[in-house]
Design brief:
The strands form four sheets. Strands 2-3-1-4-14-5-10 form a seven-stranded mixed sheet, sandwiched between helices. A three-stranded antiparallel sheet has the order 12-11-13, with no helix packed on it. It has a two-stranded antiparallel sheet with strand order 6-9. Helix content is about 35%, strand content about 15%. Strand 2 and strand 3 form a beta hairpin. The protein is α/β, with parallel strands linked by helices. It has 13 helices and 14 strands.
């Protein structure tokens, strides 16, 4: 679906909904009286949203409101940097593991929110981050050390340091998801790609060629993290060991898309910190950087298989500036030779960028036989009577059913992709 207003109207995380474009620039929403609370000066834009009503309710109704107080007490007991680093890593890893266990039905439900909800992990991570940001230790802590502690928190609470693949007798699959985003439009929002990551982490799927193990990680919706190499750090060691990978994000209404082509362009829509970035995707060795990369997922099989209630499309559309031209042109069948990217099939936001970075890394590591690419899920929607963020509830039966159906279809699409991909040498 293409809209004439802007490239960024095309997708959810790949380029944002028309509603947002028509409403004007995205800025922090004014808090309602129920949401009003003092905000510590040191907190980030993401952390400030913790004081709104819906995030507090999500944390309370999931039992994940207990993580930050325990973390704060442990930090206060740290006698030096090394102990603080262990504390951060231990609590962040425990948060990730608890979110995965909850999504997969292990351990207590801890609250009345459904187990498959990805939002408790997101808000609890921010609660830990805010505690760490405001912590004043008894010992000296440099800015670089504090930054390193925040990096450890991010890495460990996103599953990025806990990838565990078996030996050679089992196929290895890596799936990535994203945090919720566009939270100033509706702070209740979840992300079905993040929910899929929690549901699939460490699971086995059966194929005609034997079992495959899925490991997952989740990424932030922040331009700066991508520019600093978060994707490459998480994936570089893993890709040579894999049989298949797919990055996943939320995309269009009512459909899945296998994105055929990824573009080297940032469209500038605000991220979760309300930061913007426009221009060529920043990567190492920009002199050898291509304008386009291509999926190696088995897109024909994915579009033809019966994997669930939502249709699956092979999306070949891109937006380019043709060679010798000056204005963007939308091409339904992919880029033309020598053109400059302005949007891949997945738009010009961070879902396009993670697909571009992951497939560029695949190509730079000389792994042409490794199936990999990007999958866009349908938008996770609330029920028809629950669309107003000012009066709506944090969940409803339609919301729960839609998330369960999307997550289940992601699982089947991954199973199909693994089962139809040729064995790697």
């Amino acid at each position: 679906m293409t809209h004439p207003f802007s490239v960024t109207t095309r997708l959810g995380l790949g380029g944002v909904a028309l509603l947002l474009v028509l409403a004007g620039p995205t800025l922090p929403a004014a808090a309602s009286p129920a949401d009003a609370a003092p905000t510590p000066a040191a907190t980030t834009v993401e952390e400030q949203r913790l004081d709104r009503t819906a995030p507090r309710e999500i944390l309370r109704r999931s039992g994940f409101d207990s993580f930050a107080p325990r973390f704060e007490r442990a930090l206060r007991g740290s006698g030096g940097y090394a102990q603080a680093e262990r504390t951060v890593t231990r609590h962040a890893s425990a948060l990730w593991r608890r979110a995965v266990d909850r999504a997969q039905g292990r351990g207590p439900a801890t609250g009345d929110l459904s187990r498959g909800d990805d939002r408790p992990l997101y808000w609890a991570r921010l609660a830990l981050s805010r505690e760490l940001r405001s912590w004043e230790p008894r010992f000296g802590l440099s800015d670089e050390q504090r930054k390193a502690l925040h990096a450890a928190l991010e890495t460990s609470s996103r599953g990025q340091d806990g990838l565990r693949f078996p030996g050679q007798r089992m196929k290895r699959v890596l799936v990535t998801g994203f945090d919720p985003f566009t939270l100033d439009r509706d702070v209740r929002i979840g992300n079905p790609s993040g929910a899929s990551a929690l549901a699939l982490d460490g699971t086995l799927i059966r194929t005609a060629e034997g079992p495959a193990r899925i490991e997952t990680v989740v990424f932030p919706v922040r331009w700066a993290d991508f520019a600093e190499g978060a994707v490459e750090r998480a994936l570089a060691r893993q890709l040579p060991r894999l049989d298949l990978f797919t990055t996943v994000s939320q995309g269009r209404q009512g459909r899945f898309d296998v994105e055929r082509t990824n573009g080297a362009w940032r469209g500038g829509f605000p991220d979760n910190e309300n930061a913007v970035s426009t221009g060529t995707v920043p990567v190492d060795d920009p002199g050898s950087q291509p304008q386009w990369t291509t999926t190696t997922l088995p897109y024909r099989q994915l579009t033809e298989a019966d994997t669930g209630r939502f249709p699956v499309y092979d999306n070949t559309e891109v937006t380019e500036i043709p060679a010798g031209g000056s204005q963007p042109v939308t091409r339904p069948d992919g880029p033309t030779p020598g053109s400059a990217s302005r949007a891949g099939g997945g738009g010009d936001y961070l879902s396009n960028e993670i697909a571009y970075r992951a497939t560029l890394l695949r190509d730079r590591l000389r792994l042409p036989d490794l199936p990999g690419g990007h999958l866009h899920t349908p938008v996770l929607r609330f029920g028809a009577e629950n669309t107003d963020p000012e009066t709506g509830t944090v969940t409803d039966p339609d919301f729960e059913r839609n998330r369960a159906d999307i997550v289940g279809q992601v699982r089947e699409l991954v199973r199909t992709a693994v089962g139809t991909s040729a064995p790697r040498p």
